[in-house]
Structure formats: structure tokens, C-alpha cells
Amino acid sequence: MSAPPRRLRVEDSDAGRRLDVFLAERLELSRAQVRRLLARGAVRRPGSPGPLRAKGEPLAPGTWIEVEAFARPDEARPRPGAGRPLAILAEGDGWLAVDKPAGMPVHPLSEEETGTLLNALIERHPEAHGVGEGGLRSGVVHRLDVETSGALLWAWRQDAWQRLRAAFRERRVEKVYRAVALGRLTESGELSVPLALARHRPARVRVLAPEEGARSRGARPCDLRWRPLALYAGATLLEVRPRTGFLHQIRVSLAHLGHPVAGDRVYGPASDPTGARRQMLHAARVAWSEGEAESPDPEDFADLLRSLAAPPSAP
Question: Residue 30's Cα: distance from chain center in Å?
Fold first, then answer.
């Protein structure tokens, strides 16, 4: 028998509050977790014909809200197994570095989801359940976009996770990316801009004007350096070294410079002249005091570089 839904009464003091704020407070969840409940139709008013989905819907006092039974984030358990073997780049005391394929998410968003990096890692180290943030993010130290490939650190023991998180927080982790950027970037450079999340789903980040960055609560200063490694007719192979870490940081910054990552359908042009089928961003190296890991260019990345270097065919 399934568990009954939770019933929450809207008190006078809750009048006019947003639905997502009310649920986050009463259920002790984050706003992102509440949005996922709304998206899957788990919230409704008793007797109403359909679920509530609008996160900003105002509340009326004296009414009730029902929420289907759900696993709390720290109680959820990812299923072991991801359907394809993983390449382990390096291992250390309670941690490992894995070569994430392009197209594979780092962690699942629900217990039913499989095929993510964490599903495969939990199969290898089931004792990692509950490490770090726990739940469906057990052991996850940092993330790469779904389409981004390359070296990623993961911890299967709590003390290792804490050491790694401290190293990232204190900027003691060296991160080196390879990116194919549209256009010709002939000089090395660096960029420091404030970034902020413009929308959640699908996620999009924007560069803030200096005056916005000073007053925006969600602004994050982001810094990176780049240097050109090879020039092609309409693209440049770059080495990019971010000093900070923020969602889509490299992609947004390069697009801001007028040189978006090849294949980036969010921040780049709708029609990509290189023919890249995904964003050409690869985490080539990660290193810290306990170890280092290097990831070779994946096949599609190397294929694109070869095609860009090939002389044009005769008409």
C-alpha cells in the first residue's frame, strides 16, 4: 500500500505567499526540490481536478495543500549500474577520478533514473551512499554539464569528500579544459565577469553588467584564462583555465567574448559552421594536492579537430 499524501493547511499568516516558498518551508526542502515535486504533478488542492504546477501561485488562508509521498533528498538511493563501463583515470584515499563521457549526466534526478555517472560509481562503491550531500548526489564533489566530457572527481568516503570540497572552495584544484571556440582568437587573455542564473529549466546563465553585479544577490564573480593552441579557418582550439566554478561558466564567458563554444545550442548560433553535434568542451585535467588525472580528447572531439585541419575539398 502506498503512503498517504501529506496535508498542509494554509494559515492566515501564509496568505498571499508563493506556493514554492510555502512548501519549501513546511516540507524543509530546497526550492529546487519543490519545483521537481510540482513538475511531476505531486502537489494539488483536495478535490481539484488537476495538480498544481505554478510555483508562484498565491495561497488563500484556510485552504489545504496535498503533497504525494516522496523520498527526502538525503533518503533517496540511486540504483547501481549505468549500462556502460567507466574509465577510471586515477584513484586515491577515498576518492577517484573518472572519465565522464559526453551525453552522460553526473547524477540522477529521481530514484528511477539510471544511466548516470553516479549509478555506475555506486555499483563500484556502494558504501558511498550518504557521502557528502547524500541521496541522489552521494559522493558528488563537482559537476560537468551533460554534454561536457572529461575528468571528474568523486569521493566514496566522507573524509575524502570533505577534503575535496575544501580544495575546490579554497581554489586549490587546478582545472584545465580544451574548447573549440568559433572564430579566431589569436591572443591569450583572461576575463572576470559577474554571472547569474537567468532561468532554471532549461538552465541558462547570463553575464551581468557591472552595476547589476554590485546589487544582484545571485551574482557570482567568475574568472578564467585562455590561450590559443591551434587556429583553423573558422575556429580556435583553446586551453581554458577557470579559477572559479559556476554553472556554464566557460560557455557563457566565451560567448560573451563573441567566440561561443562550437556546438553550443544554448549560447552559440542556431547554425554552427563547424558541424559539431554537441558542445566541444572537454575537461582535460584536474589536479590537487593528493593526485591528478588527465583525460585524452574523446573521439568526436578529435574527429572535429581533424576535420577543421583538413584542407577544403575542391569544388
Answer: 17
